[in-house]
Amino acid sequence: MKACAGWRRFLFCFPLVFILPHLFSVLELHQNQAVTDAPKENTQKFDVQNSSVGGGNDAPKKATKKFDHLVLGPAAGEGLPNRLQCQGVKALNKTHFSNPAHASGVGDGIAFVTVFTIYNNSPDSTVNSRLSNLVTVGNASYSKPERSMAIMNVFINFIQMRMPQSNVIILTDPESDLSLRQNRVTVLPIQGEYSRDKLMLQRIRSYITFLEIRLEKLSQDQGHITHFIFTDSDIVVIDDLGQIFEQYQDFHLALTFRNNRDQPLNSGFIAVRGTHDGILRAKKIIEKVLEVYSFRYMKASRMLGDQLALFWVVKSDPSFDAKGFSKAQAFTKEIGGATVLFLPCATYNWTPPEGAGQFHGMPLDVKVVHFKGSRKRLMLEAWNYFSSSTDISDMLCLILKSGRTKYDF
Ligand SMILES: *[C@@H]1O[C@H](CO)[C@@H](O)[C@H](O)[C@H]1NC(C)=O
Ligand SMILES: *[C@@H]1O[C@H](CO)[C@@H](O)[C@H](O)[C@H]1NC(C)=O
Ligand SMILES: *[C@@H]1O[C@H](CO)[C@@H](O)[C@H](O)[C@H]1NC(C)=O
């Protein structure tokens, strides 16, 4: 394991630096730990040197180098009928997304919930070190602390564009002075221990506290139902996710899966039906995950635990059958007293690094792209590209083609 590389250096080698080691940084660790998060894929090597967009013509010397500008490679899934086909960064297929203006009636009853915190003591805040650490995407430059905030902003931008009726709720440490004044965005401080090594554990606790608050609210105001989607903040919402709650009427909790033996579930996307029953049963499962995490996985890794615990809870149920994970098709199962909907990552949690290989390209109906690991720059580049092209399908080509590139951002 190379110490102090990329985002890990960001996290561990300069632990006091004013950074926002939010969950997206955390997920980088999933990938780099001895137990890897990314399913093994064909690690077919290819030349990523061909085209580069957005500055810098210096051809990389090694494929392992982390890039500070957008680098495009071949698009996975070429020739496959149900996969996005691209010519350069132009999409040959126009994907059929719902028009945000006519989104499902459910849309106005959806809230995205994410955990985000700011760590405040910054020896890095001097003007000089600030300038030396600037990175540039499009016409904007970001210092280290600004990068995480930029990711959060892009997360919000896409949600507001694709699901304009939905809300974003940011659960945060009361100590962190996160100020975000924006329509349909709520910052909700929740007491807890948000130190880096406890962050994943705290995230589950914050989810539970949040669901308790909702239960309370719901008992006061019977009328209004809001469904919740708990996510990492390094995801981009591509299509109306309110449809999940219409299309699958009877689940309490939805998780995303992929065909990976050790870690088929990703904890970065958890949908909860906002009825009293839905919240209650989902909360029970998440409480169980917390218990298993605390009991079994505290030592496994300070970052990986929640995902392992989630899978442990699912696989410990007598009804569990791993076969369901082998096909990228949604299915439901009764787990721990709740109806759990399993949604394929290929559509609901597509990730650039493994998605290009494991999922054989990008499905035409992809709904969520997750910029795990060293793809943070690509998330900002995608927004930047979209801002000028305003074509979602073309932007997806850019993501697909750049998906195997590791960025140092
Ligand atoms: C780059 O890609 C173009 C078209 O995709 C191809 O014609 C060209 O030969 C490639 N160049 C290199 C150096 O691989
Ligand atoms: C996507 O575009 C390619 C190239 O134009 C075409 O061959 C393919 O049939 C299209 N796929 C769908 C599902 O429309
Ligand atoms: C930077 O780009 C954005 C979007 O492309 C644009 O709205 C903005 O005006 C630009 N800012 C400057 C200083 O050029």
Automatic annotation (TrEMBL):
Residues 1-25 form the signal peptide. Keywords: Signal. It comes from the Eukaryota. This is Nucleotide-diphospho-sugar transferase. It comes from Hibiscus trionum (Flower of an hour).
